[in-house]
Write a structure and sequence with these properties.
Elements: E1 8-10, H1 13-16, E2 25-29, H2 35-48, E3 52-57, E4 70-73, H3 82-93, E5 97-100, E6 108-110, E7 113-115, H4 122-130, E8 134-139, H5 145-153, H6 155-160, H7 162-168, E9 173-178, H8 184-188, H9 194-210, H10 228-236, E10 239-243, E11 248-254, H11 260-275, E12 294-300, E13 305-313, H12 315-320, E14 333-335, H13 340-344, E15 346-354, H14 363-377, E16 383-385, H15 396-409, E17 417-419, H16 427-434, H17 442-455, H18 462-470
Helix pairs in contact: 15-16, 15-17
Length: 485
């Protein structure tokens, strides 16, 4: 239909980068024209990701090319049935993108210009139920004065004229401006009613067109994926450590500032960490330490994807170069001189991630196979150390239980390091916790920990559990814990 009318749009490359390439996203937009602006937005998002659908008039289901892209609603009757809402939620739960026009009808003229009328609040409720960020898009363009005049005189007449308005848009090119995503958690925390939040989001969207400061806190969209064949080519040039039974490949990759592999690692790190309430908030998670470290990468040969990665710091080399500032954990801990023998025969591990689609598929175990292969090639390495974070997504009480348990069984008796910002267990929970753990039976106290965390809908963080159980006779030490904010 767009090609038939020679109807197009223009959007800056900066704005195009604001469209997330993956993950559940609710895209909200104003509706200045009718069918054509919706189809143009559908095409724009479709250029970035194929898993996009649009909530639109059920009449569009009559077009074969649109049937699989439309989530139909009865715009004319003004009703959205339960099954239609379930279909929208299903797409979001499947990590797809859904386009919604909250007004549910074409913009009309008003004293302040051509704008949407009242927005329906359903999009807010759906976003909150599915924990989906809102991506605001402002669409430029307008219909004819005849349309707006008839809308004032007799509104149903203007609706009938929409078909004619499509022909008036022939050979037109409209502007689109894509804002940064609004985390739904930010909206949920505002002490406002849904009605007030709805008005705030609408005002936020219209400010995008004017280049004004956003009203709501936003989040940068993660970078778009790198070329998979280019990543594969780079990995083939790196050190191959082994293969898994299901044909995943394990590589040891050295940093290159121009590397597409490093850019993809930074992108996937940010996605994985945001999923658990962390992340830098930037488009990519790479830091100054990446250039000094080696990168253990798990590669899916069939899907041509990086499954996950670990960062390995060959600390002995840094010490010989007298550059201890290359050690990431030294920014979090003050190490004592007694730590030097561990540095001389140790490696620092950290920044591990598994991209969310591979969670629960033994991927972390495979990375540990890779670490084992690395250690086999480097028998001089006797120690592994590094920092592990505890997400602030955990309730305060759950964090207190976790820190107390691991401090009890894995405390730093040698005083090898001191955290610059040590975690403080709240006075409210300290006495309760001290009476729950006996302190001389790890297995029984671990059961108590799991039971207590269950009360908060939480579980023991995977890395805390794995790091402590990797070592024989619990020869693992947790230095004073640092709280990541």
């Amino acid at each position: 239909m767009l090609d038939h009318f020679n109807f197009s749009y223009h959007v800056s490359q900066v704005d195009r980068r604001n469209i997330p390439a993956s993950g559940r996203t609710m895209i909200i937009a104003n509706h200045p024209l009718g069918a054509l602006d919706g189809l143009a937005l559908l095409r724009l998002v479709g250029e970035i990701r194929p898993d996009v659908k649009i909530v639109a008039n059920d009449l569009l289901m009559g077009f074969d090319g649109l049937r699989n892209l439309v989530l139909p609603v009865d715009n004319i009757g003004g009703r959205t049935g339960r099954q239609q809402l379930k279909a929208i939620m299903s797409c979001l739960h499947n990590e797809e993108a859904v386009i919604i026009f909250p007004a549910g009808e074409v913009s009309r003229i008003s004293p302040s210009g051509v704008k949407d009328q009242k927005w329906n609040q359903n999009y807010l409720k759906l976003a909150q139920k599915t924990n989906s960020p809102l991506l605001p898009v402002h669409i430029g363009g307008r219909n004819s004065m005849l349309f707006y005049t008839s809308s004032i005189v007799y509104r149903p007449l203007s609706t009938i004229q929409l078909a004619n308005e499509m022909f008036r848009q022939k050979n037109r090119r409209i502007p689109m401006q894509v804002g940064q995503a609004i985390p739904i958690q930010e909206l949920a925390q505002l002490p406002l009613s849904d009605k007030e939040k709805n008005k705030l989001v609408k005002r936020h969207l219209y400010r995008i067109a004017k280049g004004k400061k956003p009203l709501l806190k936003t989040e940068k969209t993660v970078e778009h994926p790198q070329n998979r064949q280019s990543i594969k080519h780079e990995l083939k040039q790196s050190e191959h450590l082994g293969s898994t039974k299901d044909n995943k490949q394990i590589y040891l990759f050295d940093y290159d500032p121009m590397s597409v592999t490093m850019k993809e690692i930074g992108r996937l790190r940010e996605i994985a960490f945001r999923k658990v309430g962390e992340g830098t908030g930037e488009r990519s998670d790479l830091d100054k330490f990446d250039q000094h470290y080696r990168h253990l990468i798990l590669w899916d040969e069939e899907e041509l994807e990086i499954v996950g990665a670990y960062r390995i710091g060959e600390v002995a080399r840094y010490m010989k170069e007298e550059k201890p500032n290359k050690i990431y954990s030294a920014e979090l801990f003050q190490y004592s001189c007694d730590m030097e023998p561990y540095f001389e025969q140790g490696i620092e591990l950290g920044r591990s991630f598994i991209q969310p689609k591979y969670w629960g598929k033994r991927s972390l175990d495979y990375l540990w196979y890779g670490i084992g292969a690395y250690l086999n090639k480097h028998p001089e390495i006797r120690y592994m150390f590094g920092s592990v974070s505890l997400s602030n997504n955990y309730p305060q009480a759950a964090k207190d239980f976790i820190v107390s348990f691991y401090s009890l069984y894995f405390s730093d008796k040698e005083h090898l390091a001191r955290s610059f910002t040590p975690y403080q267990v709240s006075a409210e929970h300290k006495d309760i916790i001290s009476g729950l753990f006996c302190g001389n039976n790890y297995e029984e106290d671990f059961k108590v920990l799991k039971e207590q965390l269950g009360h908060f809908g939480a579980s023991v963080p995977t890395l805390f559990k794995q790091y402590s159980e990797l070592c024989e006779s619990r020869r693992c030490t947790l230095l004073r814990l640092w709280r990541r904010c």
